[in-house]
Amino acid sequence: MARIIGGITTSHVPAIGGAIAKGLQQDPYWRPFFDGFTPVRQWLAETRPDTVVVVYNDHGLNFFLDQMPTFAVGAAPSYRNADEGWGIPQVPAFSGHSALSWHLIEQLVGEDFDLTSCQDMAVDHAFTLPMALLWPDQKWPVNVVPVCINTVQAPLPSAARCYALGQAIGRAVASWPGDEKVVVLGTGGLSHQLDGERAGFINKPFDLQFMDSLVTNPRWATQFNTRQLVEQAGTQGVELLMWLATRGALGEQVAELHRNYHIPISNTASGLMLLEPRG
Amino acid sequence: MALNDPPIPGTVIFDGEMARKGYALNKMCFSFNNAANRQAFVDDEDGYCARYGLNPQQREAIRTRNVLQLLAAGGNAYYLAKFAGIFGLDMQDIGAQQTGLSKAEFKARLVAANLQPIAQTEA
């Protein structure tokens, strides 16, 4: 049976793509961020996963406000990156795992998650840059299943609902008859706000408490509604919903293998965690 | 408007009301994913805005490159980032403009967030 061997949660920011393109990984500004990924890459080299379920939020590459799904699952044979408006270099296409995608769609809809299925889907920096941080040579040794959660336009799905979605993803993977080793990769956050007079808002105490909670009390953040999350984490900090969905997929107990937290990259407090399920 | 009431200072949550108000503006900004469209805007800003049916408030906010006005006109941060990309502006440029700081001051404020005390309460 397929099994989830780990969860990785990380921030995503377009500027990471610019830093990769310019080779700034060891620049003093960027080094504390990029160096955080070394232990995660070592873990990936040792565990050699087959498939990555990428939980991310689209920023207006694939979805516009004309049609805005709350939850969307990719079911394409491959996924391409494309220009998002500021010309960051594009990465090679990703191989899909459409059979597993459809299994997830069947199982999730069967559990009353009324999602949107996508057989043709572009993936943006929230998907591509975390993958490029995990595999810097961009020769993807895995296939992927994208899970996209709306954080563009309120109403957003609640934190509790995203956690439950993750739990359902965990059950769906466990019921897949293949023998894939699966990693769940959740990208977004942590605290940041791009828009308004409050731009530049960062809440370090909240971020650290949130990261701790994923290990010790994973439902802690499900107490907050969208407005409270914006208040605590900023308008784009709500992307931590991806972390909650990822954590939900890992089961009740996890071991924290690695963590990094660095302020700032661009306008963002960047976080990184590597968690292994422990039953 | 429950999400925006009471307001969070300096913050507007992009909800259905904002999405209706800003649809034309955001649709234009969405088109800037395409490099040819970005060039078409640069070549003929008036004509490009007219094609997307921007209202006078949106047109003026585009003309002045004023981010707070663009937000007030219904712009969404994720789409406005594509507009900013035309001018090579990064998020610290945008943040500085909105907060009335210089870019250096804005960046210093981000770094200073490291000094925030950690939480006392248990997760």
Sequence-ordered SSE layout with sheet pairings:
The complex is a heterodimer of chains A (279) and B (123).
Chain A: E1 3-10, H1 14-21, H2 31-34, H3 38-47, E2 51-56, E3 71-74, E4 78-79, E5 94-95, H4 98-110, E6 116-118, H5 125-134, E7 143-149, H6 159-174, E8 181-187, H7 204-216, H8 226-233, H9 241-248, E9 254-265, E10 268-277
Parallel strand pairs in A: 1-8, 2-7, 2-8, 3-6
Antiparallel strand pairs in A: 1-10, 3-7, 4-5, 9-10
Chain B: H1 16-21, H2 23-31, H3 35-43, H4 45-51, H5 56-64, H6 67-72, H7 77-86, H8 91-99, H9 103-112
Helix pairs in contact in B: 2-7, 3-4, 8-9
* Residue-averaged pLDDT of chain B: 93
Task: Tell me the structural class of chain A.
Answer: alpha/beta
- The CATH topology label of the domain at 13-88 in chain B is Protocatechuate 4,5-dioxygenase, Chain A
What are the secondary-structure elements of chain B, in order, as H or E? Answer: HHHHHHHHH
Radius of gyration from the alpha-carbon trace of chain A, in angstroms: 17 Å
Average pLDDT number of chain A? 97
Shape category of chain B = globular
Helix content of chain A: 25-40%
User: What are the low-pLDDT stretches of chain B, counting only 5+ consecutive residues below 50?
Assistant: none
* Greatest interface (CB-CB under 8 A), with counts per chain: A-B, 50 and 56 residues
CATH architecture of the domain at 13-88 in chain B: Orthogonal Bundle
Low-confidence stretches of chain A: none
Which sequence of SSEs, written as H and E, runs from N to C of chain A?
A: EHHHEEEEHEHEHEHHHEE
CATH class of the domain at 13-88 in chain B: Mainly Alpha
